[in-house]
Amino acid sequence: MARHRHKKRTHVGASNGSSALPAANSAASRVPKSMVIRVGAGEVGSSVSQLVSDVRRVMEPGTATRLKERKSNKLRDYTTMAGPLGVSHLLLFSKSSTGNTNLRVALTPRGPTLHFRVERYSLCKDVQKALKRPKGGGKEYLTAPLLVMNNFASPSQGTRSDQAIPKHLEDLTTTIFQSLFPPISPQTAPLSSIRRVLLLNREIPKINPSSETSEQAGFVFNLRHYAITTKRTGLSAGIRKINAAEKMLKERKGRRGIPDLGRLDDVADYLLNPTAEGYTSGSESEIETDVEVEVLLTDPQKVTKTSQAELGQQHKDKNSGRKEQSVQKKAVKLVEIGPRMKLRMTKVEEGLCGGKVMWHQHLRKSNQEVEEMDRVWKERKDKKEERKNIQKANVQKKRKGSKIEGAEVVNDHSDLDQGEFDSEDVAADI
After folding, report:
1. Which of 80, 192, 360, 408 has the maximum number of C-beta atoms within 10 A of its C-beta?
2. What's residue 418's pLDDT?
3. Can you give the pLDDT at residue 253?
């Protein structure tokens, strides 16, 4: 007899059912999640579409990498699904009628929204073509990048109050970009989990007091994306080559890279002979001291009798210099993996892609105009609340009416049934 097939995709206890969703107050629900969207999927062009794919790689793993947009999709479609999916940020790429590429960074569900104009950008494939040894995609995208922000707080001197961005808007922009990725605790985060760096470098404007143009007071910053690579220092090229070959053997990648020692009498001839790819000149082997860091070994190591004796001696002589054997010196290098973008902030809105304009690059308003704008928005908000209350009262009234009508219909049916039973009883008596 054939075994009964248990369906796991539709039952409540399935791994992808409602029980697998994170709770509202759990740690998984507080991890920032984002959606990188093309507004007008068929109108932005192939270059912007590839830029969207590259930005999704930057935002991994907390983003929808395989999101498919349609021409008929509206902004409301994404905002409606943001709540059930736990999406906290929306990055919207669009193209204007004049050919400018725009980016909107919005917080769900109520905003605010930052508007940027992408002045220049380079795709990942362009950056990798320009490098001599490009870094391929591997385990770097399994963890969130380390966010580094520079010059986001403008200096107090050298700027004019009528042109400079207000201090609270600078703090708002800093907070929004910091909330794109989960926070990293230096005391508890393992070093192996930090594999990428996302650099946001703001260009501090040099304002000329005699100039009356407001273009100089813009909020412009450059975005760069790097992969972190490390290399152990203090070893000869031959030993490093043997270590790399040992790693390849452990990963079962074949015997590629193993040095050929068949023509040598002793391994010391390979390690100590400069012509046999051993020690090289100082210019080739030495690393700059400013990129060297000391890393405490946390990976499990093979314990031998010799190492056990050394550990026992370390416990006996705590003040001796043998403790340094558990610390390795590694050279840290950043390899750019792309994309690159130069963004200029043009507007800040209070709501989600709408609402009151908190700051504009080209428009300046007096205090009276700001007060008038606040009054208009307050009236709109009051009218909206009034309409909501009226709609809520109408819905409750309709529900009460439907309950009364349903009760009357039930009473009519009960009277009719009682009449039928009486006629049957009379017929039986006759």
Report:
1. 360
2. 47
3. 57
- Gyration radius of the chain over CA positions: 33
What letters, b where the CB count within 10 A reaches 16 and e where it falls short, cover 165-201? beeebbebbeebbeebbeeeeeeeeeeeeebbbbbbe
Q: For residues 320 and 97, is the Cβ–Cβ distance under 8 A?
A: no
- Which residue type sits at 380? R
Task: Copy the structure tokens of residue 370.
Answer: 């700001």
Instruction: Measure CA of the first residue to CA of the last residue in the chain; give whole Å.
Output: 63
Distance of CA 235 to the CA centre of its chain: 37
The C-alpha angle with vertex 65 and arms to 225 and 76, in degrees rounded to 5, equals 110
H or E stretch including 320? Answer: none
Q: How far apart are CA 102 and CA 118, in angstroms?
A: 6
Count how many Cα atoms sit within 13 Å of the Cα of residue 79 in the half-sphere of its side chain. 14
Cα 426 to Cα 236: distance, rounded to the nearest angstrom:
114
CA nearest 111: which of 353, 382, 345?
353
Per-residue pLDDT tens digits for 25-57: 555 557 899 999 998 877 888 999 999 999 999
Neighbouring C-beta atoms of residue 406, cutoff 10 Å: 10
CA distance 127 to 99: 23
Q: Count Cβ atoms below 10 Å from residue 33 Cβ, excluding itself.
A: 19
How far apart (Å, rounded) are the C-alpha atoms in residues 239 and 228? Answer: 22
Give strand pairing partners of 103.
93, 116
Please, what is the average pLDDT of the chain?
A: 76
The pLDDT value recorded for residue 421 is: 44
DSSP per-residue codes, 154-195: --SSS--TTTSPPHHHHHHHHHHHHTTS----TTTS-GGG--
Query: In the beta sheet, which residues pair with residue 348?
Result: 114, 359
- Quick check: bond before 61 cis, omega within 30? yes
Which of 266, 326, 278 has the alpha carbon at shortest distance from 299?
A: 326
d(CA 204, CA 222): 11
DSSP state of 134: P
Sign (positive or negative) of CA dihedral 382, 391, 353, 171: positive
pLDDT tier at 360 (50, 70, 90 boundaries)?
confident
Alpha carbons 91 and 104: distance in angstroms, whole number: 6
pLDDT at 77 (0 to 100):
92
3-state helix, strand, coil in the chain (%, to 5): 40, 20, 40
CA distance 61 to 140: 10
